[in-house]
Amino acid sequence: MAYPPSPLRTQLVTAAGAALGGGAMDLLHVPLAWMIGAMTATAALAWSRPVAMPGWARPAGLVFLGLGLGITFSGPVLAAVMGALPVMLLGGVLAILSGLVVAQLFTRLAGTDRQTGFFCAVPGGVIVMAVLAQEAKASVPTVTLAQTMRVLVVVLTFPPLLGWLAPHGDFSDFTASHAETWWPGLLGMAAAGLVLAWPLQRIGMANPWMLGPCALGIGLAASGHLPSGVPVPLIDAAQVAMGASLGTRLTRSFLMASRRLAIASVISAAVLSLLLTLLAVGIGAAAGLPFAAMILGMAPGGMPEMALTAKALELGVPLVLGFHLTRTVLCNLLVGRIHRLAMRFGLLG
């Protein structure tokens, strides 16, 4: 009689496979190699055996990722990002409205009701949109699957396309000097970041394990009191944890049980990506901001994934992160109101 593998063994096999997949992609010089390799390797394992990652792996990775992103905000860089705030607000609003347009396509392809289709199509992050969908009595499982598929499409397409094709432009205004690693200072920052993340998690904030440490890193870097940098191997490990966490969702049952929904999610994500890319290029030209950073900033991917892509490709991390932070805030403030207005005027009825 065959017994299922133990949870610990499953986690070890999954983590090892994810790390090997990331290493293989890194040897091939694939952009965002550790995340994409970990995700694809974990997904491949998931089709033939159980997969799992320790519950602490993704939060731990997000803590160090948040620190690594936050410390890129020196005083001058923070000032430059704040100067671009009107553009970031415009980009966030346009991204939400673009989701409202693409929702019509998604609803036809997936066969869902229009209300659920709206929350599936708006690029507001998996957790945020699932919470808002629950409040609006839409189908949370459908929204979660569609939002997950959208993130996967963006993660698999934007890094290689931007790495190979996009003009990189001048990012000097949005680039800070690299800080040396001092392990006592880094561990102290990680501990303080956890302290800041805990209350955000308690109140239901999306991505608290990244946002708390990121805020700490921004404060220390902008004030000139940064005790340590974050070494590249820790950022790579964070990529592996995030990629493996995404890959564990791609089980055979997950994809085969909702093939029509998965196909609709992929097509609508591609259309939304193209629409937001065109808007990003137009806004970037008008505002004088680098095209590649604008494209990543307005991309319909998750905040951690797009910030990691910017870091891996050295495409103005603070500017890209600023766009996604702004969109996250706007989604919390506006998506529910836009949904109610659309319902009132019959756009989703």
Automatic annotation (TrEMBL):
The keyword Cell membrane does not apply. The chain crosses the membrane at residues 28-48, 60-81, 87-106, 181-200, 262-295, 315-335. The keyword rRNA processing does not apply. Pfam families: AbrB (PF05145). InterPro entries: AbrB_dup, AbrB_fam. Keywords: Membrane, Transmembrane, Transmembrane helix. PANTHER family: REGULATOR ABRB-RELATED. This is AbrB family transcriptional regulator.
